[in-house]
Write a structure and sequence with these properties.
It is a single chain. This protein has 559 residues and is α/β, with parallel strands linked by helices. The chain has a domain at 449-558: GMP Synthetase, Chain A, domain 3 (2-Layer Sandwich), CATH 3.30.300.30. It has a nine-stranded mixed β-sheet, sandwiched between helices. Strands 16, 17, 18, 19 and 20 form a five-stranded antiparallel β-sheet that branches. Helix 6 (133-143) crosses helix 7 (155-164) and helix 13 (303-310) crosses helix 14 (333-343). The relative contact order is 0.10.
Length: 559
């Protein structure tokens, strides 16, 4: 089976390519299901596909990005990308294959940075604004990054990262729209350049980005994606499930550093010449006000956002809104029904994973079944597998397995690669049931991942931070079910001094976690214990704590 991009790499620096898993550990990649996927050429640069091709097709004056009071056309974005690409090469010495870290909220310069790095043949690693120096340093070291492009508003943690990792030799600061600031050296370097930059002739399977996702081991994992992967996700879900249109105006909450946000707010609209509104700050009220102000046609956020917005919809004119997409966590049936009741819209539920870049199970319109995630979307196949890797019959719960044009390739992590990819399938970590009509129904997670308000949080990562606190002797972190967020992070803590088991200690431990890692990961509940459940050999039994929390939630719901 032909896989686009089989030709020689354009990368001078082969660091990332050398750290891919052996090809016999890759999932089976299938481009045959959709004619569009099978027709990809062996060589192309994603920046040309999403930016240059739009201008060449006559869309230069179409609205691409809306940010605060500014409107960026496709031509303005192209010119900004080209100036930045020249600055990356001429001022910062970036070469094909180099890794460049991106750090910014959702703004036009963050979008331009994605494509400028791709255009020069380098690899970008986008990071969330909430990450702290401890987390950023891990990523910088794992990818051997020497250059970071950072929004000037977020410089402090980036500088703190540099003090931890001397190999990060340069931090290039920019402003939200690149208009210039005395301390924004990237803005100044771009101002000295002229538009016009020929994209590096990358192979379709040259590495374009490394996206980090928290995992059950506690340490973030780098997932590697190619130029062709970015185009593939834009050719599967948007035209076949979302039914994207050129006159669409998107708005949403996910950061561009999430692959959910990258697809929803950048790749999907730009593939067809549509527009997106970018929000540096998000709240349910801000999102609704933005829909009204800019006549947005589609929203992207997590189920928590829809639950919160449902009580506010009467205060806003949402008549322009035609579609709402949910992803990031399981969409509960009550949330689906509440949003439909208040707006008349059936939420398009999407299941995706950073390992596969975006959504692979979904449904929309009359094909939607409340409570079901949906079916495998065009371009992908899905199955329910038993412990031995054999397919299970419909109606039996098992491991959800996916394959298609994108798939998991971890950076320098053979153990996790062998766990995630089995028998040619991507094993997502979700337990599902498939019914006789091919719909997939969510049951549970089968690992230590906590999914809260759309964020993936690894319990062991939070544990490692708590264990750094001098008061903590032992701890275990699990998901605790709650109505408004789906799950919250809950920590069970054994203190060195049991007399410190007070509300003040709870607050102190929560504050400590917020200082060390992204604040959304902090334990919203802490319960002190004299001991934690363990096996005879001393292994921590988190599943028993999860079972306790599930039983409490069931009792509360029943009572």
């Amino acid at each position: 089976m032909h896989q686009p991009g089989a030709g020689p790499s354009a990368h001078i620096d082969s660091f990332a390519r050398n750290r891919l898993p052996p090809q016999d550990l890759w999932p089976q990649m299938d481009f045959s299901v959709l004619p569009t996927l099978a027709a990809y050429p062996d060589r192309f640069n994603a920046a040309e596909v999403f930016v240059d091709a739009r201008v060449a097709a006559g869309d230069g004056d179409r609205v691409c990005l809306i940010f605060e009071d500014e409107i960026w056309s496709y031509r303005r974005l192209q010119e900004t990308v080209d100036r930045m690409a020249k600055a990356l090469v001429n001022t910062y010495g970036v070469r094909p294959g180099h890794r460049v870290l991106l750090r910014a909220p959702n703004n036009p310069m963050m979008v331009a940075a994605h494509f400028a790095v791709l255009k020069v043949g380098a690899i970008y690693i986008a990071t969330m604004p909430l990450l702290r120096a401890r987390e950023l340093a891990y990523i910088v070291e794992a990818c051997e990054i020497s250059l970071a492009l950072c929004d000037i508003k977020l410089a402090d943690e980036m500088v703190a990262t540099q003090s931890r990792v001397p190999g990060l030799t340069r931090i290039a600061l920019f402003t939200s729209t690149g208009k210039g600031n005395a301390d924004a050296d990237l803005d100044r370097a771009m101002a000295a350049e002229t538009p016009g930059f020929k994209a590096v002739d990358t192979a379709a399977n040259d590495i374009a980005l490394i996206a980090f996702t928290s995992g059950t081991t506690g340490a973030p994992k780098g997932t590697v994606h190619f130029h062709r992967d970015m185009v593939a996700i834009a050719d599967c879900f948007p035209p076949h499930i979302f039914k994207i249109r050129r006159d669409d105006v998107m708005v949403g909450s996910p950061p561009l550093a999430f692959t959910f946000g990258l697809g929803a707010l950048v790749l999907f609209p730009m593939r067809v010449g549509a527009a997106s509104v970018l929000l540096e700050k998000f709240s349910p009220e801000i999102l609704l006000a933005t829909v009204e102000r800019h006549r947005c046609t589609a929203t992207y956020t997590a189920p928590t956002g829809y639950r919160q917005m449902a009580d506010m919809v009467d205060r806003f004119d949402l008549s322009s809104l035609t579609r709402s997409v949910s992803a990031g966590e399981h969409l509960p049936k009550p949330t689906f029904e509440l949003w439909a009741e208040r707006t008349g819209l059936k939420i398009i539920d999407g299941l995706g994973a950073t390992e596969l870049l975006h959504i692979f199970v979904s449904s929309s319109g009359d094909d939607t079944r409340p409570g079901a995630t949906g079916k495998a979307i065009p371009g992908y196949q899905a199955a329910i597998l038993g412990p031995d890797g054999a397919p299970l019959p419909d109606g039996e719960p098992g491991r959800l397995a996916i394959r298609g044009p994108t798939g998991c390739r971890y950076l320098a992590n053979l153990e996790r690669q062998q766990a995630y990819v089995q028998h040619g399938w991507n094993i997502t970590g979700d337990v599902y049931v498939r019914d006789s009509d091919g719909y997939f129904w969510y049951q549970a997670r089968n690992d230590d991942m906590i999914i809260s308000a759309g964020y993936n949080i690894a319990g062991p990562e939070v544990e490692s931070v708590l264990l750094d606190h001098p008061w903590v002797k032992e701890c275990a972190v699990v998901a605790s079910p709650v109505a408004d967020r789906g799950q919250i992070v809950k920590a069970f803590v054994v203190l060195r001094d049991p007399t410190l088991a007070t509300t003040d200690t709870v607050a102190a431990l929560q504050a400590f976690v917020k200082q060390e890692i992204a604040p959304y990961k902090y334990p919203r509940a802490i319960e002190f214990r004299d001991a934690l459940p363990r096996t005879e050999t001393g292994k921590l039994q988190r599943f028993r704590l999860r079972e306790e929390e599930l039983a409490k939630a069931a009792h509360s719901a029943g009572g």
